[in-house]
């Protein structure tokens, strides 16, 4: 009997050894157009042998760059988990569930990298070539954003768009809470793309916040508020290719209309010896993963940045609600508010800057309410 126990023990140890050895695969051996990479290859925090990073590399970037990005994404997410402070707002979100989505564009403006860490599924990484991929979400269009270049004192109708804008003094970090429009029926009827967001003005224009993905006869959208970041007028972030590239990795998920979304926007965020313009959004998403295969409302933190875009010189921060389009005359209605506005931690009272004829905005302390029509 004792010998039988020893024999069984030896068999079990041998099986464990073989299983552990099979997981020690180098990234160079497994990273391809579609591959699965063991989590311990990239030293994930959970160190669970059952966890995997599924890599989809349609841009065919090098194994070295894939490895570097995954390490960077995990570092960024780990950092944000450490710095996240409990608050009344975060406690309102779904407890014990969260998704982290990290978007990054390389310094050559060529490839969009995406990493998703979800408590409900294994992590994924996707790399998309911004120069070659085709449209995924036809509801997403590149806005002319003509109101941003108008004279700040001008209250004339805005060609190609409608909306209102306020400004606050510059600093390094703008924080606010966006109360999104929850009138899905009206949002789907709007002609043009609906936005509520912040940004900065100066030698470079930046827009950072939310755009609505509408569902109607012309657009096959998902009826959610999706993250939006535009840097300059000719950068990939601002083009139709970039927005479609975003949908190629983000698919159906987004923030639920009518919910609050916390926005943090840095003009110059330095990490790993790289200076970036960084957007971070936190709120309640429609699904528990990017494909919505798990349609359970879940807390979603989105971090978006582009290598080398950090700037030290801006004229002011801006706060806007708009409906805009390059092909048709925009029309419709957006009702949203932006509250708890701070710059580098200090409350700031917005100043009215520009609006279209029938639109209005109401300012109270460090909050602003928009009625765009």
Protein model, in words:
InterPro entries: YrpD, YrpD-like_sf. This protein has 373 residues and is of the alpha+beta class. The chain folds into 2 domains: 97 residues, no CATH class; 213 residues, Jelly Rolls (Sandwich). The chain is 18% helix and 41% strand. It has 6 helices and 19 strands.
* Class from helix and strand fractions: alpha+beta
Gyration radius over CA: 23 Å
Name of the CATH architecture of the largest domain = Sandwich
**How widely separated are the two ends?**
84 Å
**Biggest sheet architecture:** 13 strands, mixed
Stated plainly, the CATH topology of the largest domain is called Jelly Rolls
Please report the number of helical segments: 6
The number of domains is 2
Mean pLDDT: 76
Percent of residues in β-strands: 35-45%
Q: Give the class-level CATH name of the largest domain.
A: Mainly Beta
Coarse shape: globular
Order of helices and strands: HHEEHHEEEEEHEEEHEEEEEEEEE
Low-confidence stretches: 7-31, 36-51, 133-159, 236-242
Helix percent band:
10-25%
* Total beta-strand segments: 19
Protein name: YrpD family protein
Organism: Paenibacillus nicotianae
InterPro entries: YrpD, YrpD-like_sf
Pfam families: YrpD
Question: Which helices and strands occur, and which strands form pairs?
Answer:
Blueprint: H1 2-22, H2 27-30, E1 34-38, E2 52-57, H3 63-83, H4 88-92, E3 98-105, E4 111-118, E5 121-129, E6 161-168, E7 173-179, H5 184-189, E8 193-201, E9 206-215, E10 220-231, H6 240-250, E11 260-271, E12 274-285, E13 298-307, E14 316-324, E15 334-343, E16 346-347, E17 351-355, E18 360-364, E19 367-372
Parallel strand pairs: 2-5, 3-13
Antiparallel strand pairs: 1-2, 3-4, 4-5, 6-14, 6-17, 7-11, 7-15, 8-9, 8-14, 9-10, 11-12, 12-13, 15-16, 15-19, 18-19
């Amino acid at each position: 009997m004792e010998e039988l126990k020893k024999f069984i023990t030896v068999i079990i140890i041998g099986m464990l050894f073989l299983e552990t050895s099979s997981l020690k695969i180098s990234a160079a051996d497994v990273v391809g157009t579609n591959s699965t990479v063991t989590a311990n290859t990239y030293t994930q925090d959970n160190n669970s042998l059952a966890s995997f990073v599924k890599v989809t590399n349609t841009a065919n970037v090098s194994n070295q760059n894939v490895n570097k990005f995954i390490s960077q994404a995990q570092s960024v997410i780990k950092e944000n988990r450490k710095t996240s402070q409990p608050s009344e707002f975060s406690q309102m979100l779904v407890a014990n569930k969260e998704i982290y989505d990290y978007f990054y564009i390389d310094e050559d403006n060529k490839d969009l990298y995406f990493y998703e860490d979800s408590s409900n599924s294994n992590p994924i990484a996707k790399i998309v070539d911004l120069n070659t991929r085709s449209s995924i979400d036809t509801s997403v269009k590149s806005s002319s954003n003509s109101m941003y270049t108008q004279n700040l004192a001008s209250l004339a109708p805005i060609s190609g768009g409608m909306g209102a804008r306020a400004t606050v003094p510059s600093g390094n970090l703008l924080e606010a809470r966006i109360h999104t429009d929850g009138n899905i029926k009206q949002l789907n009827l709007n002609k043009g793309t609906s936005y509520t967001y912040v940004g900065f003005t100066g030698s470079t224009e930046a827009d950072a916040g939310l755009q609505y993905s509408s569902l109607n006869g012309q657009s096959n959208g998902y009826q959610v508020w999706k993250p939006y970041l535009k840097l300059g007028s000719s950068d990939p972030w601002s083009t139709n290719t970039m927005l479609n590239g975003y949908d190629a990795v983000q698919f159906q998920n987004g923030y639920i209309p009518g919910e609050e979304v916390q926005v943090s926007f840095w003009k110059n965020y330095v990490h790993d010896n790289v200076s970036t313009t960084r957007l971070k959004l936190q709120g309640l998403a429609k699904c528990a993963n990017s494909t919505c295969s798990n349609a359970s409302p879940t807390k979603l933190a989105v971090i978006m940045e582009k290598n080398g875009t950090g700037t030290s010189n801006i004229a002011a921060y801006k706060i806007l609600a708009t409906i805009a389009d390059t092909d048709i005359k925009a029309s419709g209605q957006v009702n949203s508010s932006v509250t708890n506005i701070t710059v580098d931690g200090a409350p700031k009272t917005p100043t009215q800057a520009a609006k279209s004829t029938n639109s209005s905005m109401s300012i109270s302390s460090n909050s602003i309410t928009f009625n765009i029509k």
